[in-house]
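Posting this for the archive.
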Amino acid sequence: MTSTHAFWLAGRQATGESDFDVTSPWDGTTVDTVSLPTDAQVEEAVAAAYAVRDEFAATPAHVRAAALDHVSRRLVERTEEIARLISAENGKPIKWARGEVGRAVSVFRFAAEEARRFNGGEAQRLDTDAGGQGRLALTRRFPKGVVLGIAPFNFPLNLCAHKIAPAIAAGAPIILKPAPATPLSGLILGELLAETELPAGSWSILPVPNDRMPALVQDERLPVISFTGSETVGYAIMDSVPRKHCTLELGGNGAAVVLADWASDEDLDRAAARIATFSNYQGGQSCISVQRVIADAAVYDRLLPRIVAAVEAQVTGDPNDDATDVGPLVSEAAAERVETWVREAVDAGAKLLTGGKRDGASYAPTVLTELPADTTLAHEEVFGPVLSVQKVAGEAEAFAAVNDSKYGLQAGVFTHDLQAAFRAHRALEVGGVVVGDVPSYRADQMPYGGAKQSGVGREGVRFAMDDYTYERVLVLTGLAL
């Protein structure tokens, strides 16, 4: 890798006073060395974003759209280079890293499209009552102010894109804080944005360590916070700034329901393959990975061995190898935590059907059954390649099992029954129901977010733009309507 040694401050490259090494979770080698911004530089970024907020809000749509289109095109041109960078700093298998770049391409393209049509205004005649005669209301949306975007490590490019692109599209300045373990992908976005003509100060990318995040969170010049990460940190942020607008994309323990009508050999083979892939993709480090399978008793005995076989067929190893399905977790500490949770479950009576072994930062794809309800794995987000399978008697019991969780991000329901699909949509306390597939499907333009402890607000480009803006009404008087 080439050495970056810099961050992006108010749209320009800058160097701080201290450096830190970004290391590969696969082999521990140094991927790059990144400079940390000083407190004075952070203040400069915040001050610049605050000062440019009115100018940026008034920037013509075509200017913002052109910048977003540029980033989208440049991501396409540099796909392989950036995918290799994601894989190196995150440990993600290269084939999944390429997919992540492709998604970021779409996010910036969607944002360019939304920038061109967003905020056109909605007219409402007011002469429906006598007191409104000659009056017309025009409602438009305006930015709430500077956005502080805080991104996680698991999708180090695409989740940075989901902070930056909607903000630029809406005309809201943004300060992005990438995850300390994976700052390089976010800095690449800074490199591409620096090639555009966006106003100075409209964006900064600051790889500050987590212990310096509270000062940014508390800064009154940053009225909007968009956070993706753990439940504990997300709600701590919200509790610390009750008067700010917070969008929180937090955890989940995604369930895949297999109903009795999903019963042919072809059906069960497909369900098992999708479950195996998406309980282990990204090393299970996705908030919508499959953590729980809830199978009707009518199909359970035929489905379970298929799942185990499909999980065992996942190729583990070097993330640089195109054949690898499952790479390491982000750190050895993360793998040790998963190991501890699985051991606790087995000691409590869960049956381990495959996996359950750790090698450094890597953890073998794992399947459990008969998971006791009081174990950590049963009610927390594992964020690792671990799956439990549960037998239920009928649809109602299956849906109740999905809802028996503090989380509610997305659920998958394997069924051919359209009525059952609509019943699932009504009954399941989640932000999204995916019919005929696992809960791990996300289209980057659709509304994405959860219920219960899975967060507040929605991402998905246009929906994030709504979150970053507010309605302002203009009443025109004396009109001949």
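The chain has a mean pLDDT of 96. Residues 321 and 355 are 21 Å apart (CA to CA).
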